[in-house]
Amino acid sequence: MARVKFLCDADRCIECNACVTACKNANEVPWGINRRRVVTINDGKPGERSVSMACMHCTDAPCAAVCPVDCFFTTADGVVLHSKDLCIGCGYCFYACPFGAPQYPKLGNFGSRGKMDKCTYCSGGPEGADGSAAEFAKYGANRMAEGKLPLCAEMCSTKSLLAGDGEIIAQIYRERVLKRGYGSGSWGWQTAYQETVNV
Amino acid sequence: MFNHTILRRPTLRRLALVLLLGLATHTAMAQAPVRPSAPEQGMNTDTLEVKEKELLGQMRRIEGTISIPDSRAAVLIQPDGRTWRDYRRGPLLWITAACVLGTLALLALFYVIKGRMLIAGGRGVATLLRFGSFERFMHWLTAGSWCVLALSGLNMVAGRAVLLPLLGNDAFSEISHWLKLSHNFVGFPFAAGVILMLLVWVRANIPNKVDIEWFRQGGGFIGNRHPPAEKFNGGQKVVFWIVVLGGGSLAITGFALLFPFYVTNIFGMQIAQVVHGGIAVLMIAAMFGHIYIGSVGMEGAIDAMNTGNVDLKWAKDHHSLWVAEELAKTGKPNPQQPAE
Question: Does the beta-carbon distance from B259 to A110 stay under 8 Å?
Fold first, then answer.
């Protein structure tokens, strides 16, 4: 099976935040939770770049390693999912995550952050019951079960955000960099997968 | 000699040329990153663009600006999480195992060798009030909440390795949820207890010459000698300062973790967790020793925190200077007799 990843080609990102909106809409996440966000580096300066970031579904994910109740699962596609039934909302994954992916519905209200929420790569939850209303309410959309990629990447207007088989999206990015002659890098890859896309 | 100058001249010239060339290339290289290739025709994105690799090399974390209201989300990448994960997965587990199991083993060994330290000649009839009700209240407030905190804290560190395989995911998660909640709330009475003990007992716990002598004589652990001691002996003063300083830093780091982003950012929280976990397991080891010597390790010791009235013979053995002071204060040659 393919190892799915995200790759944001920052040289194409126009900071339209459509991926953020699409994610919120597709998964109907609660107020205050952003599974995906767009960060602009060197805003307003020459060489400014914007990067769309969510859970990178890391190899040997730090969140899974530090979780005191072992509530994380990696699917056959390499997607990192967590069980909201098991999560105790302790915040450890949030200390460990290099990408600020874990979100809590009640962050800051001491002792009760609520169950952690994060990008599921539009794969629903780890409990099975693909596409059920219960799964949607708890985890959001399960587009992968329908053979579709995450909505954020699918509807990216400049095709900056790529989702799919890591090998294929890396190849697409490599070709783009070779053709246009520059590339700011595969943001987050070194940290998430201990490898970069070499061009 | 003439030959020499002829030979030297081209060498010098060559050297000067190399130096000049070197300087020229050096300045060219130094200028390269600053130079937009053609400023009049717009920026060259190729040479100016920000690159992830360079940013990661320069900074601890990559941060930018963000248009959603959550400004904390502006941190893009912070690879420190991996270091923290390695600490939590490796050293913290081993330190915890060494502190908990190691201390228990040492105490068991000590018990086997030394046995229970008895009051020489058995308990007497006369008793002396050692700790009043308020002193006992603040001790047990701290001790009780400490037990809850230590158990729930140990569960956070080692429960996944020890309890999870025994209980299964669902039961372990349910228990951990309640333990985590208790940890978050019981931290407040613990901190209150530590503050009270600091206020009430600090004067009696300033180290002095008596303590040096107490330690020099082995604190009464070696042989059957009982070195003179005040209300708190050298060992108890050490325990006091471990509780006040250790408990204080546990409270500070704990509250910082309890209110995310009010005190510090994620890097600060990682540091706080490292300090919190490290000090906590060391304190667990120290408190095992304290609990041992206050209960099974020594006859009569528990009375001080149970009824507050200790056996006079015990008191004279372990706190001779304090007994003399108390008796002088009350002006009674004989301490209080039991009610019956």
Answer: yes
- The span from the CA of B38 to the CA of B40, in Å, is 6
CA distance B188 to chain A (A): 12
Cβ of A85 within 8 Å of Cβ of B173? The answer is: yes
> To which residue do tokens 């954020």 refer?
A152
Cα–Cα distance measured from residue B81 to residue A95, given in angstroms and rounded to the nearest whole number: 6
Residue B55 has which token pair?
């940013």
Q: What is the pLDDT of residues A28-61, one digit of tens each?
A: 998 888 999 999 999 988 889 999 999 999 999 9
- What's the pLDDT at B222? 72
Which helix (H) or strand (E) segment is A101 a member of? Answer: none
Contact A96 B169 (CB under 8 A): no
* Chain B residues close to A14, C-beta within 8 Å: none
Question: B49 pLDDT band (50/70/90 cuts)?
Answer: confident
What ipTM did this prediction achieve? 0.87
A-chain residue closest to B155, CA distance = A68
A198 touches chain B (CB under 8 A): no
Tens digit of pLDDT for each residue in B183-223?
Answer: 999 999 999 999 999 999 999 999 999 999 898 888 877 76
Shortest CA distance to B127 belongs to which of B321, B316, B318, B322? B316
Q: For residues A21 and A52, what is the distance between their CA atoms, to the nearest angstrom?
A: 12
Q: How far is CA A87 from CA A135, A196, B158, B173, in A?
A: 16, 32, 16, 7
Does B72 lie at the interface with A, CB-CB under 8 angstroms?
yes
CA distance B243 to chain A (A): 24
The CA dihedral of B213, B216, B218, B219, to the nearest 10 degrees, is 20
Q: Do B46 and A43 touch (CB under 8 A)?
A: no
Phi/psi region, residue B118 (left: phi>0; alpha: psi -120 to 50; beta: rest), is beta
**How many angstroms separate the CA of residue B247 from the nearest CA in chain A?**
20
Q: Give the global pTM.
A: 0.82
Model pLDDT, residue B36? 43
DSSP code, position B336: P
Q: Is B161 on the interface with A (CB under 8 A)?
A: no
Nearest by CB to A62, from B45, B81, B156: name it.
B81
Query: By the 8 A CB rule, do B59 and B78 touch?
Result: no
A114-169 residue pLDDT tens? 899 999 999 999 988 788 999 999 999 999 999 999 999 999 999 999 999 999 99
Token pair, residue B9, equals 């001249």
